[in-house]
Amino acid sequence: MNNIPFKGVIAYPVTPFDQNENIDLPLFKKQVERLVTSGSHAIAPLGSTGVMPYLNDTEKEAITEATMQQVAGRVPTLVGVSNLTTERTIYHAQFAEKAGATAVMIIPMSYWKLSDQEIIKHYDSVASKISIPIMVYNNPATSGVDMSSNLLKRLLEIPNVTMVKESSGDVQRMHYLRRELGEDVAFYNGSNPLALAAFSAGANGWCTAAPNLIPELNIALYNAIQENDLQKARELFYQQMDLLKFIVAKGLPRSIKAGLDLLGIGGGHFKSPLNALNENEVEELKNILKTLNYNIEE
Amino acid sequence: MNNIPFKGVIAYPVTPFDQNENIDLPLFKKQVERLVTSGSHAIAPLGSTGVMPYLNDTEKEAITEATMQQVAGRVPTLVGVSNLTTERTIYHAQFAEKAGATAVMIIPMSYWKLSDQEIIKHYDSVASKISIPIMVYNNPATSGVDMSSNLLKRLLEIPNVTMVKESSGDVQRMHYLRRELGEDVAFYNGSNPLALAAFSAGANGWCTAAPNLIPELNIALYNAIQENDLQKARELFYQQMDLLKFIVAKGLPRSIKAGLDLLGIGGGHFKSPLNALNENEVEELKNILKTLNYNIEE
Amino acid sequence: MNNIPFKGVIAYPVTPFDQNENIDLPLFKKQVERLVTSGSHAIAPLGSTGVMPYLNDTEKEAITEATMQQVAGRVPTLVGVSNLTTERTIYHAQFAEKAGATAVMIIPMSYWKLSDQEIIKHYDSVASKISIPIMVYNNPATSGVDMSSNLLKRLLEIPNVTMVKESSGDVQRMHYLRRELGEDVAFYNGSNPLALAAFSAGANGWCTAAPNLIPELNIALYNAIQENDLQKARELFYQQMDLLKFIVAKGLPRSIKAGLDLLGIGGGHFKSPLNALNENEVEELKNILKTLNYNIEE
Amino acid sequence: MNNIPFKGVIAYPVTPFDQNENIDLPLFKKQVERLVTSGSHAIAPLGSTGVMPYLNDTEKEAITEATMQQVAGRVPTLVGVSNLTTERTIYHAQFAEKAGATAVMIIPMSYWKLSDQEIIKHYDSVASKISIPIMVYNNPATSGVDMSSNLLKRLLEIPNVTMVKESSGDVQRMHYLRRELGEDVAFYNGSNPLALAAFSAGANGWCTAAPNLIPELNIALYNAIQENDLQKARELFYQQMDLLKFIVAKGLPRSIKAGLDLLGIGGGHFKSPLNALNENEVEELKNILKTLNYNIEE
């Protein structure tokens, strides 16, 4: 289907800064290049991993454009454009479309919990201003809103709302989604430790920052599922489970940047108040990567 | 291994009463017979489904003995013997062993949350008084105690504590258990809606009351997993998912008894204050069973 | 009102055992005597503090009778008679009435979450078999059932159901109860750390094990409230707050028994698997009591 | 103390928009004037009630300046300047100081949960750039971070961090704060339904949007506490409790604006996706206000 452009491993890059807290675009492009060449099936800048909420408009636009330049059509792109206000969400969605994004991802960000009517109007307003597909993102932990399957059904009636990303961390919700929304609706797993369970449940893809560190294992897991080989998938999952749990427990931007430093690629600096992992945490990550046979620069 | 006697579908019978709230042993035996002949791999009386905590000692003993008589060694048996006090737990564990049970299941029941030391001493005391294997049961929702993997590791050092049943409803705990305890430890899933996810994660078996109603589907799911056919397992899981969710949402004893009535086998009465499903709930269950092509007596 | 026999500080004794795990009745009577003479306004045996769920029928009956003998009508008594089955609840309620209890306390114990209809029938059945007042006890943490104010309203329509004890630990529920049930309904606080907030909200009394250790402070707090002296009540509350938090955090039976040992009265032994506080915890309790100027036997 | 400039009722205005979603400054000033003349002890623009996170920099600055002009030194002011990034927080704090704010309020906003070290550095960085006092705001529900009393202690060592606002909705945390931080630390209640419990616990003030609707009742409650008249305070609290619960349950901006419309003052429009209460909710609010004898324009 034209408007469901994603399957497999959708990779989320970080946003690297220099020491003055300005975006380091050359390093960003290097990281994106590595995600593409190591086999990820799509690139998703300005996600949680990309600390999108901490960026100003200029920074968001620079990251969007740099992604398009570097990916250059080799794989589809999914740009995060969520914002507290409808007006700003439209602005960034239109920017992404004009820049060449394949699709946009929108979570109903909220400081004040939104009603279903407010959420519907929000997506309706944005969808009517762009023509590329929208992935609805449900993540109660960060948005403060847990969208019901009835609400998701309603949102999927909007013509270019065609995909759902579920990150509540409960595999039963994925079962329920697929049951309620039907097999035709594309749903994506956004919870790394549920990678095996979500693919078993029939997820179309896995939205993850892990390919910044262990792309081979992530893609091999997807391939085993495609080959209907559960035993192999299980084995691959248990191999990478410690890494998946670590990056979620310590925070994706911090742990991915630390891992990129350890792998010699470079993770870049942070924007305050966010800061790097402490030494013990870096040591723990180093041990996990070594166990997986990655070469660590000492 | 001799002391890990279970795999596959471990079926939990209800405890039927007559109108005077006395146990209906003939009906119980009929229900057990059906569980055995429809292919369940083990029978587990006096579980939550069997409303064990509501029974007095005489009733527990009658159910234990009736199970042994009816099963007659055709499949292994797992008898629930949990009790708030160590003294009564020992009593019932010894009774079960003497009656011929293959193994006993023990959850650390608590009114006052137990410390790790208290739990270890409890299992130690019981284990030293019997020689059949013990399955440790973790279910924070009913016991009030969530046993850590460290504690479970310690309990598994007791020679005849050989199995773990996990019912917290979070598949990530199963991943963690297998990771921490090693592949040799037998772990069992006690959460019906997680049947697919738990088998995908490598569970040895599924402790469930569902075979009272849909034994063919339950066993087919296990067989698909054994055949490493994830697509078939997924399809079978989605077929039975509504039934699995219903019996958990409405309470196992109530929903299984209602289903046994609908199927013409008879579920029996309840012990107060527990009571039957209401009419709307029965109607809902009837529709689920009809969708699965079961013949319902109208 | 004749059927609201309690106000002020309702004291909960522990149940002491000897080294063979038999009830130590002489020690129990000594503890009860101290509760009465130190000014508690009522005595409530067989509560959570009295580890009622761990006792067999004989033990419950012995404790009930010993309480009546020792109190000898000097203050009213409130006997816990809750049980999973309706039949056993009736049995113990009738025993308490015959023994001379002023009232009984009943929590809707549940292994399987009860429906509102099941709870109503349970209270109706018990209430119709006794003529003394019943205090309904809401404590979702131990019973697994959180009774709504609508359900409580319905229960209070049963003639001898006249009091509500609220232990959810949320003062807003007490506000709501009083608002919904009206000022005439007697409500009691069962959460020690909420003593000040609950009295401020208008609670008729405080159900507590603390008078085993610090009766003077507990009663002084109630008196300050009676005198409408908020500043004094606040000061008294902050004085005893550490003790109140400690006994809740460590478990009432364990911490009260340890305190009784420290005070030279004697707390008695436990029934397995329950066990004593560890040394560090006892040291912490000793320091709290010393700060409150209690003499500790070293 | 010079650097603890607040006590009593600290009133939070809304931010009214016109139909084109531009700020309606004349209406804002009218609302602020009413808060001052009806007796509030301080004015706090750009709080949650003022939908600060939805405003761009220009809008925030306009609201800050309009507040200073309208209040004109009659009562102290507390301006919200929280932001996800340290750089923007400093910017807005400096703007507020220059505009004449008495103090600023800062919550550690987070998309990615901050470590204690990150939070300390954030407050340190901001505090070193301004000379007016800072109120630390703890509200895990909106910030995603629950600051421990140890962390709060550390933050209070920063010279111009002098006040704590607690909005977790648990009165036990206020007890604990006062106990751990000492009586000299000024703590403020930010949870409307806890107004009585928090004042009973010794809170210095009440941060609330309620004075937009019922200023007389809010101030009378504070006065009763000052007079040590618990019975009167309790009575006043129960009078206003339904209103306090309503505005929290329905969201402060929505319910306060609806109330201002009902009272004939005018609440203004919203910024999308936020929207007005529905008709049933407005009707409910109307009934609550009528019960409190407010004149409602029909």
UniProtKB/TrEMBL annotation, chains A, B, C, D:
GO terms for cellular component: cytosol. The keyword Lyase applies. The active site is at residues 137, 165. Pyruvate binds at residue 49. SMART domains: DHDPS. Pfam families: DHDPS. Transmembrane segments: none annotated. Belongs to the DapA family. This is Dihydrodipicolinate synthase family protein. It comes from Empedobacter tilapiae.
